[in-house]
Automatic annotation (TrEMBL):
Protein name (database record): Glycosyltransferase
EC id: 2.4.1.-
EC primary class: transferase
Organism annotation: Eruca vesicaria subsp. sativa (Garden rocket)
Membrane-crossing residue ranges in chain numbering: none
Keyword annotations: Glycosyltransferase, Transferase
Keyword Signal among UniProt keywords: no
InterPro entries listed in its UniProt record: UDP_glucos_trans, UDP_glycos_trans_CS
Keyword Glycosyltransferase in annotation: yes
Superkingdom as given in the UniProt entry: Eukaryota
Similarity annotation: Belongs to the UDP-glycosyltransferase family.
Amino acid sequence: MRQGSHVIVLPFPGQGHLTPMSQFCKRLASKGLKSTLVLVSDKPSPPYKTEHDDSVTVFPIPNGFQEGEDPFQDLDDYIERVQASIKTHLPELIQDMKLSGNPPKALVYDSTMPWLLDIAHGHGLKGAVFFTQPWLVSVIYYHVNKGSFSVPATKYAHSTLASFPSFPMLSANDLPSYLCESSSYPNMLRIVIEQLSNIERVDLLLCNTFDKLEEKLLKWVKSMWPVLNIGPTVPSMYLDKRLSEDKSYGFSLFTPKSAECMEWLNSKQPNSVVYVSFGSLVILKEDQMMELAQGLKESGCFFLWVVRDTELDKIPRNYVEEIGEKGLIVSWSLQLDVLAHESVGCFLTHCGWNSMLESLCLGVPMIGMPHWTDQPTNAKFMEDVWKVGVRVKAEGDGFVRRDEFVRCVGQVMEGEKGEEMRRSAEKWKVLALEAVSEGGSSDKSIQEFVSMFC
Ligand code: UDX
């Protein structure tokens, strides 16, 4: 291995992208390849300097906004400014690395920013695209982009539409959301579709999945492109407590209330708690939050509910006093620690791909309440392929009633079906551990990547 070999890794600035890509950096480090993780900061003016974790160098760049401006008011504007900032600062970083006699070998970039391939190639670096969604979703986008798959006009059309290897027929309700809601989210649609627009020129495709998870579809994917599945990026010691790997959670944009969660969970019986979280981005309407709050209360189970600070004012007045010891609401958790806790019996999730993988790897059955983007398709995996959860039944406008939450919690926490899900989840957990253990499929992929660039 050549001294000083290294790569640059650039996630989209969102927790669902930062989590797997920062864990990927740690995996590379464990095999001797250094990386610089470029973080677009959520602060307008981050300290423009590098910071060192034990294994990963973090290089923050500004998000292009001035102090006092709200970056999230206009998504288009946000994306444009982030793009402009990266286009200024990334070439400078590469140039500095070259001048110091240690040029990076590759740029690993988030699939939502395909234009980074040209920057990589323009500077003589290999370009490796990183997908934080399953292959099935990427393949659907690929076909839509090529014009070989047309989508229905409405999301709630239930006719079956498409079939993919080893996958049940998909209805419109199972497709990635923007495809059927193109008029509401034209820019999001463009971003997700364009992920695969220049795929023929990409040097390598990385995905946070493992071979057994999408086995048959993968045959087709591998026949098309140079692919390495490197997931799940969950630190191995969560999968097997005997492993002493550094379990630090990579990089977080939120501050977890870890001690509070653990203390509360420690006081509960095994499998008695429903963990509820909708990831870093989903925003529920106020009436939906109210309904969920009532549903959790009426379920009779204990629940630990992550409600981000920005969502807190949607919690019904006096709710915290009313639920007392039955529930704990926190602004952010250390999700892996929560899912690994024996008190947690089920995860009510928005079906973000990271959350799904984490729950699967820790053997926790799920209740899926997908919201947008890849989540409806991820929910289909959960319910009909892995058979580790149920999807809530929403009304025509997407609203989920409290009785439905009560029904799903009862089914997963108490019924025979819940036991079956737990058994299935345990099987997937074993396969995930196999993939990341020494000599497993994902471990070999990481080794192959490291060998390419050392
Ligand atoms: C999004 C999409 O939903 C996902 O499908 C896509 O492919 C990547 O980006 P997000 O909506 O935030 O991400 O959800 P998810 O993919 O589940 O990622 C959230 C991450 O935050 C997970 O790694 C989860 O462990 C972590 N988290 C969440 C916490 O650590 N604590 C919390 O309280 C909530």
